[in-house]
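Hi R.,

As promised, here are both runs. First protein below:
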Amino acid sequence: MNLLLTSVFGPYGVDDSFGRKENKMELFHNQITREQDIFSYRFNHHSFGLQLLAQNVETPCTVLDFPTLERFVEEIKRGYDYVGISFIVPNLKKAQEMARQVRRWAPASKIILGGHGVNIPGIESLIEHDFICRGEGVRFLRQLLGEDPAAPIRHPLSHSSFNRRIMGVPLPRTAGILIPGVGCANRCRFCATAHFFGAYTPYLATGAEVFNLCREYEEKMGITDFGVMDENFLKIPARARELTELMEAHGKSYTFGIFSSAETLKQLGDLDLLVRMGVQFLWIGVESKKEIYEKNRGVDFHALVADLRHRGVSVLASAILFLEHHDQQSILEDVDFAVSLKTDYLQFMQLGPIPGTALYEDYSRRNLLLKEVPWEEQHGQDMIWFRHPHFSREESREFLQRAFARDYEANGASFIRSMRTALWGYAHCRRHRNPLVRRRAASFYHLLEQMRHFLLAAGLFSQNPVTTRLVKEIKREFREIFSAVNPLSLGVLAFACKEKLRTRLRGDARQPDLLCLNFNPA
């Protein structure tokens, strides 16, 4: 018996019969730094869930990530007992085509559908299939394959991102991915992941389990920096504290990027615990100036963001546009509020009724959904797909673009903001009375060593006064830390010039490389 697990086929982020150009296969360039031109982060991320599933079955399994349709057909012709297709709502047509190809070229294969797309109403009649996986997939797949569903979870070792470029400079793959658990107890009404997985399911329940996995990454791949795929990692504070204590006891200085809610940070108390733990990036849901979500009640976000950044924690805040209370005045107030927080990164997402969420059920019941909008246009980075009393679909596109542009103009390039945060973190750690905090200065010094090479090009390619001012200020501070001449700056400048020319001549779209992995070979 054998199994194929695959993501949907490319090309991605192009206008064709399967998708739309606005839905890029890049997290940052799609929905965070999208209006920052050459300063936008160009990263791709693997389908980590497929690797986790493959790692946790005994059956021989192949993972195909970012294939072309031709490469997918070539693979299914090899003959698999099961073909699992993972897809999100906007990729319905791609999943339909892949299932059609399986029935044509591998009729003996059983088709498994998974991912958020399976919550589309009537999915049973929309795509050829034999099984549908809803929710947590490890137990489902083990049961389907006749394996022990309660067997211990085995975590795969995988880089957190690839095809990484900033200002055209190719960056090495230096970070790994950790998946401590899936689901979220907060269950915000709009959140697809929280509703898909339900209550929190831990894969790494203790700090010791997280620490041991970090050590395995370090020993086998030389990785000490990690992206943590967990909706609210600090929600189990004992796990975070145990992880911190183990790192300190063993002299390890691992660093992390995490997700957290504001109310969890308030309960944490001393934010220096984040510094000791090595948190250098934190994604937090601000959503709106108006306290419409319990997780944000009574939170002073201006103070919280400032406290985090001055400790060296780069903050990515997310805000939602076209909420129920938004009109053409109040939406601008929410945009200005989010911009005024002065975070390193700012995500604006359109309110999106995603199938499977409480929001979708509510809007469906109230007949607010625009059913004529095709699924491939329901991705949150172009036009809304529901009736809003104060905005047309075309206006929603315009307001979204203006929000990103407003942040860029008011706060400068996110990459330069993150340099400012790293400088603050270095100063905070160097001066701190606690030696456990002071020891973290070394990781900031290493980060700043890498960042300084970009300052020459950043100054020359600056597109607004705020970025220009930030670069000048930061250059002065860098000279106090690094006195040596920096010849690599000219190399960065050459890459930046090449990238600017490339996008002008060939356009903005980039395609991720194919990944094919084999697990449990027979």
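And here is the second one, sequence first, then its structure tokens:
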Amino acid sequence: MDRNSLVFRLLATVLGLLYTAFFVTGYDPIVDTDKGKVRGLRISANNKRINVFYGIPYAKAPLGEYRFRHPQPNDPWEGVYNATKRPYSCVQGLDGVFPNFTGAQVWNPNTKRDEDCLYLNVWVPQENYPITNKAVMIWIFGGGFYSGTSTLDIYDAKYLAAENDVIVVSMQYRVGALGYLALFHRDAPGNAGMFDQVMALDWVQSNIHYFGGNPHNVTLFGESAGAVSVGMHLLSPKSRSKFNRAILQSGAPHAAWAVIPEKEAKRRARALARELKCDFPSTEEVIACLREVPADNFYDYEYNDNVIEYGVVRFPFVPVVDGSFLIESPEKSLNSGNFKKCPILLGNNVNEASFWLVYFNKNLFRYNAETLISRHQFEVLMDTLFDYHPYYPKRLNSFGIEAIKFQYTYWQDPYNQEMNRYNIDMAVGDFHFICPTVDFALHYASNGSPVYYYVFDHRSSVHLWHEWMGVLHADEINFIFGEPLNKSFDYNHHEKKLSHKMMKYWSNFAKTGDPNRGPGEFSVNEWPLYSNSSRRYLRLNDQHLRRGDKTVDTGVGPRIQECAFWKHYLPDLVVKTADMSEMEREWKVQFHEWSTKYIVEWRSQFEHFIRNQEKRQTCGGGP
């Protein structure tokens, strides 16, 4: 047999194997999986062919005795499973704070809410050959662990997959009490939602090769609670081996809102049980009762004051340190270097807190009108927003509160209402999102892992929220998933280019671990490595596109001074003032108020007097 004939036969054999694994009947692609065949849809994105599979089951429905438990493997099925409709969303409440505002309503589930929700979606590009061994990106949605669904239009991965030749997978996972209620009992161990994610990662490892994906080239990416989830998978021994790289958008696993200890988790679970008339002496009785409660009843009570005290960026049921998924606190794992060593890409948006502030106090922070904050309102808000600091076992003392006010006062003009609003936005955003993300990056850089940091500072031309809110939490998602390429929206030409560029960065990183280059390409070194010494990050905006040059914008930081305050100064201050007598503490706070607040008022009055004197002299007046 000559060489050409041998090559031809080998090629025919390979194509035959591919055909049996992934073939088309009419216009419907059908793929083998380890549980049975699935039928998807053939669609196009920007005139590029793509196969999409909606709602492939990856675990048993968590109903009846499986409620609160970790997920169980799915049973095989006969025939061909119809994966052509978006799956159910997991049970959750709806956002009714701004019922007629599209900017808020786009985050509500767009499919039926049901406990039977453990499904995933797969987008497979069909334009480029080979159709095997493609890089895989797994999206984990956000929503504070109390809401969210992979089916949102904003998470439609067809453009990301088609334009960048990557396979994208997204999964549903349980949220709220049904996903995170923890009684540390075999029937309600906690972290069910995290184990849902782990089982979805297992599914990818076992099945993605049937779709042409490479199980050894998998990147997790997520935003907010999704970024926290990605970070926890980097820490967890249960999931470290199931992926290769990670992208964290506006979130880190040791953020104050992201995880709670066992004692607090049990308290919240018992408090919710009392609200639902399931207050029994034994844990077994409580769980048995809660299993009988209609699923929709849970979210009606999750935010009751007895369950969780009202505050900004506080969520009632979140991951816990359970000794299994999380063997220790994320902070401890990071400090000891107990995490997966791999390349990471991460960052934040400029105004991370403005979205949360309009929900915290919609009468003061208005989503559709200018918002100005007086000095008095600034002080009251700071007392309210930071009266509780989850890093410490008890509330911040008065020194801590005053220190935060001092750090975030615009001392050039403390009565500037616009700056007061801006600095409240910055304080909340720094504490809950930006500084934990920066700290996570520094831990990784210290351990020698390649780190790429970004700050997204582009305000969309089609933005629906008021201009004062700036570049909001989650604003980058539209560009990562290619929404500007959708002709239904009126994004401008530069924004379409920005979206292309961001998708390219993300997919390059998924393929090679370097956002600057794809496979076989030379690195253009646009995006610098982030290190403890340089702190250089990439600014993601359309300014260089408007200039028409290839010089991207970079920065140093971000928020170096502010993050040092939260990580070092404030904790030290609280510890060193903890043993003061109440009388001494009160005297020192009063002195501090005199040296700041009243001196500021005196200065303001003096400057007002000087301005009046100048006006009188200009007009020829005088004593």
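A quick note on the second one: The two ends are 115 Å apart (CA to CA). Let me know what you think.

Best,
J.
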